[in-house]
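Suppose a classmate hands you a notebook page containing two proteins, each written out with its sequence and a corresponding row of structure tokens. How would you begin to make sense of it? This section walks through that situation. The first entry is reproduced here exactly as it would appear on such a page.
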Amino acid sequence: MNEIKIWGATLALLLVGAYLSYTKKEEAGTTEAVTIVDQKKDALQEIVLYAKTQTVAVSLREADGQKYGWFEVEVRKRKRSFAGNEETDKLIEGFAPFKALRSLGKDLAGKEFEETKLQKPERRLVLNYGGSQKEFEIGGRTSGARDHYLKAKGGNEVYLVASKILGDLEYPEGKYMQRKLRTAKLDQVEKVSLVAGGKTKVALQRNKAGGKDAFWANEATPDEKNETLGNYLDKLDKLTATDYLDDAKAIEGAATLLEATWFGEEDKNLGTVKLLKKGDGKDAEYFASSTATHLPVKISRFTTEQLEKDLGTIMAP
């Protein structure tokens, strides 16, 4: 009987201890998403991530009334820059407002704090909102989900930030580089003007809203499907940037092979691309300048050589 009483008392103490531990954890942190910086997307001007081996800066620029992201990545004093693609919008939304998966509280200590690796952080995050700067220290990552531990510089509240928000920012080229030479969708295009060798050829897109029934026609014969012209424009459309040039002067002296301009309704300019060639034979290099990439870019030699070879046929009357 005494043993039953002892076990009963022990069980009661364990239940009380468990309840107190649970409520203490609930008081220390939160299990719901927490807003770290409550700012609107339009207020965000720059994101800078300082890591051990590189610095990644994302700023917002504007050209022809359109805002776009601009990346500058510096590794061992070598800086490379490139325009951001449509995915950059989602990146920016992750920081305005800037949210954490949850707060881990303000009183982490001992082994709990050591696990965050915030005692000697190797990465920093700086966010500029309309002249107001917020700086954060980034610690280690959780196992499994690979989420990031983070706290404000000088603060003591620790947050858990989703892996995708900071992870993709560390290696931005793969996901955020603008590689397409034009940004307008194909179903927005009414016509394309091709200029090469002093000649101009205008291609019209017919039944553009018809999906598979859409086709390209020579402006001179607007109702006749021109497969040769269509195949050429398809190759041109699939041409992408392989890399950005550090300096626009790299294309000085290059000859323009082709200038293509896409137009939408009411002759709205949807973007222009110039294909450029520098050198001859095996030493030839191919580049493009584009309203989508903003800087000159390197392009595929194999595809561009084909486009150059077919120009005579395409530009013929």
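The notebook's second entry, a different protein, reads as follows.
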Amino acid sequence: MNRSLLFIFLVVLLFIAFIIDLAMGSASISINDVWTTITGSNENQIYREIIFNYRLPKALTAILAGSALSMAGVLMQTLFHNPLAGPDVLGVTSGAGLGVALLTLGTSFLPFWFVSGWGQVIAASLGAALVLLLVVIVSIRIPQTTSLLIIGMMFGYFAGAIISIMQSASNPDTLKLFIMWTFGSLSAVGWSQLSVMGPIVICGIFLTMLLQKKLNILLLGQNYATGLGVSVFQLRLWIILATALLAGVSTAFTGPIAFIGITMPHIARGLFHTSNHRIILPASILCGSIMLLFCDCISQLPGLQGTLPINAVTSLFGAPIIIWIIMKNKGN
């Protein structure tokens, strides 16, 4: 299929997934009612309340988070030349989790509305920022990309160890609050959170788009990139910063969402049969948005008792894709 037609197909599929996501939920709303409510021709106040104050922010959050995680995955796979690298390999996601754990498991005197609302977002952002600072300091001192990957993983293990210790010593109420955060949630983001999350994600996407030419050169190897006048050291810092912005803000607002960042770049490459970042970056944005919207739809299928954790649904789809990637690479 022609690439332009394929992009058009993905945009149409994104629009369909968006409308279906708005229609699904505990209160069933037909697609026709969704469309007439959005366009303003439906004056049903109940539908307007449900769609504009709950489902629309959730669907936009899915698009933002899917775009951010997918793009961060492309950056990490390009930087480390590793098809299984994801946005969490630098430890930024673990840092966000540690920040939330320190807030929810380490404090008992703060009011519930702070611990479960903006407090979690602030704590996750600070935790991600701290790990980002440590990774940047390490990347300045250690030029080897492989060593940076290992150190990022160690940051993640260290944060995970502290979280496990805190979980073992916490009371059931605070432990439940933290566990609920680790499930991931798109519905916790309202318009006030979107007004912060949206601009940061857009800045991260814009920064990444500015790097696409240098990212294509980096695919050919660091020595080749250096020979063409690209400062690999500076490029690595910009990649780390963009990844931290995209993955950090997504995790801060939605909690950890697995596999989107690892798998969607591969889906994009498989569809377009290229590694050119001018194509893969926008394609990954579309694929990640579509996948997270459909996963959100599945998490709230009719007949389910409540809503499934979005992190579990993405893992159900992501794990088989990872196995397929490993089998394909082994075959090659």
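A careful reader of the second entry would note: The first helix runs from residue 3 to 23.
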